[in-house]
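Listing S7. Sequence submitted for prediction.
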Amino acid sequence: MEKKRESGEVLEHMLLEEIKLEQIDFMNPPDEWDMEFHQKEPYVPPILIEERDIENTDETNLSVRYTLLAHHRSFWRMLAKKPLSIRAFIVRSNVHIPPAHESIVNCTEEALLFDGLLRNGLCENRSRLSELLGYSRARITQILNLLKLPSGIRRKLLLTDEISEFQLRPLVRIIDSKKQMTMFSHLIGSKLTGRQMALFINGKKEEKKKRSPGIEELMSEDHGQKSTVLVKGDKPESNLQDKENPGILTAHIRELIRRVSSIKISEWEASAREAGASDTDIMLLQGVFMLRSGLYERAIELLEIVVENNSDYAPAYFYLGRCGNLTGDLVSAENYLRTALELVPDDPDYLVEFAIVLEKLKRNTEASTFYKRSGLIRKRFSED
C-alpha cells in the first residue's frame, strides 16, 4: 500500500445492509488469531461483494451469496458474538468502489477487493480499475499477484496491516510453497524491508558481470553511430534468453536495442526477431521507441501491458520508471525503479535513474547512497 488510510472514517456515512451470516463466504481466522489482542482496534464495517453466477440465467433459482473482501478482523470479532446477521457495506457499483478502497489498509484485502471487482464484472478490466483508483495497470497487477501466495500465508497477512505489497513481492516469485512459508516466517520475525527480503531470498550471490552498454548510451541521439548493423544469421548467445536470470535478461534487451538502433524503422522488428527477440521483447522495444519519440502515454501503455503479463521483466519496470521521471510522476517512477532494482539489484544505470528520482523528491541523502553504489559498480566493471 502506498499510504495509510483512516479505515473507520470512510464508511461511517455509507449505507450499510443487514446480511444473514449464512449467506456470507469468508476465510476463517488462522490458528494464531487472538481476538483479545485486536479487541481495541476500531470496528470497521466488513466489505462484501455479491457473487454473480454468470452461467445461471434462471434468476428464480439463484441463491444470493456474498464474499467477505475486507475488514476480516472486525468480522471475526463479530462472529464470536454468534449473530444471525451482520451489518456490512456491499459494493454494488462503480460509485461504491473508491470509498471501499479508501477504507482498506491491508494489502491482502486490497488484492481481494480487486479480484472480487474483476471477477464479478463491477470493473470490466484492469484498465478501468486503474482509472477509478488512480493506479497504473502495472500496480493493479502487482497487488493482484499477492493472491498467488498460499492461502495459509494470506490468512496470516490478514492479521497485520504492517506488511506491504512491496515487502511480499519477492515472496510471490517463489514457486515452492514450503520455501515461501519459511521465507514468510523470516519476514515476520525480522521485519525485513522489500529490498532486504529480495536480498535474503536471492542470497546475495551474484557474480561479477562485464559491463554492458549503458542505458544513457543506448538512448542517446547519436547511439546509432556506435551500433553495428545486424548481420543476417547473427544471433546473441542463447543464454541471453535465460528468463531465470534477470541480469542476463537486461543484457539481452540492451543488446537488442543496440542492434536495431541503426536499422530502418520498417525493418527493425524483423531484425530484432532475427536477433532472438520474443513477442514480449518486441513490445518492450516498441515502448522504448515511443519513449524516445516523446510519446510517453503510448510508451506507458505498451510497457504496462508488458509487466502485466511478465511480472519479473526488469527492463519494462526501468523504462516505466524513466517515463515517470520524464513526465514528472515521481511517485510512480520511484515505485517502478524500486521494482527494477529488486529484480536486478546491481545494475548501475538503474541505480543512477533511481538516484535522480530521489534527488528530485528532495531525498538527497538517499540519492547520494545510490549514486555512490552505482559508481562503485562501474569502477568494478572497468577493472574486470
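Caption to Listing S7: primary sequence and predicted C-alpha cells for the chain studied. The first strand starts at residue 17 and ends at 20. Residues 1-5, 204-247 have pLDDT under 50 and may be disordered.
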